[in-house]
Amino acid sequence: MIPIRLIVHNFRAIEHADIDLSAVSLAAIAGRNGAGKSSAFTLAPRYALFGDVISGVSLDDLVRRGVTEMSVEFWFEHQGDVYRAIRTRSTKGKGKSTLELQQRVNGQWESRSAEKITDTEAVIRSLLNLDDETFTASSMILQGQANAFTGATAGKRKDILSQILGLNLYAALQERARQRAAMLNLEIEKSKDKLLALDERLAGRPVKVEDLRIAEDQHTVTLAMIVEDETVIKVADAQIAVLDGKRARIQQIEREIASIGDEITTLKDERTVQSERLERADKILANEAAILSKATELEQIKKQLVALEARKPELDRLQRDLAATQLDFYQLQDDLNRMGERITVVQQQLSGRDALREKAEVFETEAQRLRSFEEQADKWNILSTEINDLKADHHREESRLKLEEQRLTDKITALEQQEAHIHDNGCLPTCKFQQAAAAAVAELPELRQQLEVLDWSGLVGLTARIAMQEADRVALGYDHAAHVSCKVRVEKRREAPSKYAQLAGKDELLQQLEQQKAEKSERMESARQRWDNLQQQAIDLETLLAPLPELSAKAIDLERWARLKDQISAAREMATNALERLSAIDLDIDSKQARRDDLSEERSGLLLDTLDYDQLQQSLAQSNSLLQQRRRQLAALAERIGGMKAILAALDVDQQERDRLSLELEPKVQRWTRYQRLIKAYGKDGIPALIIENAVPQLERTADEILGQMSKGKHYIKLDTQKELKSRPGLAETLDIIIGDWTAERPYETFSGGEQLRIDYAIRFALAELLAQRAGSKVEWLTIDEGLGSQDAEHRALVLESIKSVANRFKKVLVITHIEDAQAAFDQIIRFDNADGGVEVLVA
Questions:
Q1: Which CATH fold would you assign to the domain 1-129+782-794+807-844?
Q2: For the chain, which end, N or C, has fewer CB atoms within 10 Å of the first or last residue's CB respectively?
């Protein structure tokens, strides 16, 4: 895998960067701290390929502050093809991420992405045959991690190598094998327990078979006895059915007798009603003369009532007119009283006319003085506003001139100090710092000129204008206290002019009121006369209508006699009909009584025939009880037989289950044995030990080759994986780093800092190659992040020489450093410089 291009937009501190790496082989990455060097070359590729790879940092925290959109585009060559991974992040709303993987085919980009981001990440891991951890370990030496392996104790290096090689996978596999073995062991033990339980149940099978045979014999005998009982019950049922018919006839006769009795009672009730009707008709016919006389008297009274009722609307009209006339009289009386009060008020108002005229004249004089004061106050306020505005302009101009003077003074002072520092530091004229300082000092003459010509004349002009305006304000002679006093006097006398003006039409109003009073007095006298006239007419009409209630009561009393007049002819017919119906009722009653006697005689004969009915019923109940008992015995036997058959069927199932468990047990035992072997193979002394034993010689050979290149053949590496115990016989697991030269072999810890750093890099490079080979994906790219800061100049030179000596093992080597003399050691430099708040990347 070889990087080709990196395009970063709003990623951490980087606003925008487009880095073309196609022509880069060995380069330094330079720039100020915080410019984004590590973000671009260690974090951005990992984020583009594998996503959330920074522990403790959320995806939203990767977006540059102040913006909401971020993207990273990483181009790389892999196995002869060119790919690019494009990943974006938006912090809008709940946040959104995208990932696109593309391959360049015939100059065009074709998508190789899956539907979901997680699936696309799986495609990338499958393509590279790397995950983030292996990718980082094989292509990057991060800041402060060069001696992560060599700086550990000898006893822990094997553990670290196991973690680097990913051997913790075998611990997980061993745990899974243990879990599977435990599950199989649990299943085997359960199967054994089930076999023991099944054997115990199957031991009682012969006894259950014999019990079933005995129960079936008892069932046959009981069934025959039930058939005999049912025959006896059928004969008894036939006899009882005949008797039930006779008993039903008895009940029918009893119902007919009761019905005839009810009919006779009904006829007797009807005879009573007809007798009462005959009696009432006889009474009406006996008083026929009196009824006709009362009806004639009622006709005469009705004529009198009609004549009087016709006069009642006239009385109602008179009473309404009388009430309206009375209301008009009282209304006119109230109007006269109110009009008299108004006349009195107007007369009182006219009596104070002279005093109001004097007050109105005084008010006019004071109002004229107040208008003069207000004109002076307006001029005073205008001048005060102008003076305040001029003072504000004076303050702003003064502040601006002082700030400009202070700014120029501070800048001149700083440049003068920088000018003095240039002459004393001893730097060469070609030094970049010297050149930048000289350019800044060149500004001094111009700044001094600006300070000298600073214009203060505008401030003096504003001061003069303020003084002139204040003199004009004093010349007005405006007295605020006299103004306020005059205003108070005007307010106190403001009502007098309006009251005086209102008296102008009061004389004419007084004449109109007196004329209206005279007119209303005449109308009130006319209303009084009409009221007396209407009252006399009402009294006369009430006297005429006085007999009306007595005549109405008498007419109501005679009304019932008039109604009897219409019933005289009906009474004659009613008497004839009642006599005929009474004769018919007597004949019908005699006939029904004869029928009732015949039915009573038939009932007596049937009662003699059904005397044995109760004894037959008792005998039948005993037979039925015995039959039910035997049927229950039969059901119990059938249930018992069914239960026995179910038990035998369950025992058959148990036998089948036992046969099945016996067949399954042997394969489970064999599988459990295999898992035991896997547990041992995945253990620390199994496959992981073999991998380490095979990896250590390969690591030793590669590291020795790289160290030889770095030291020009002076040193070689030897890795010891075991050492003898001092306290007792035997060997202990370890991973000692032994460094040898032409004189002797010594442990890694005895070498100097610069030599240790070369050894660190040699082993670190070897680990990177080992991881890439084990992953099946060669990473031909190495990034070293700030690996030189802790070294002095001599050791930095040794480390840089070592890095350059092994650069040919990789297609691209990138060294991130902020040290200028280290940057000068590389022919190619990728420089991060500030440009309008962002980052500009220059590949030299």
A1: Rossmann fold (3.40.50)
A2: C
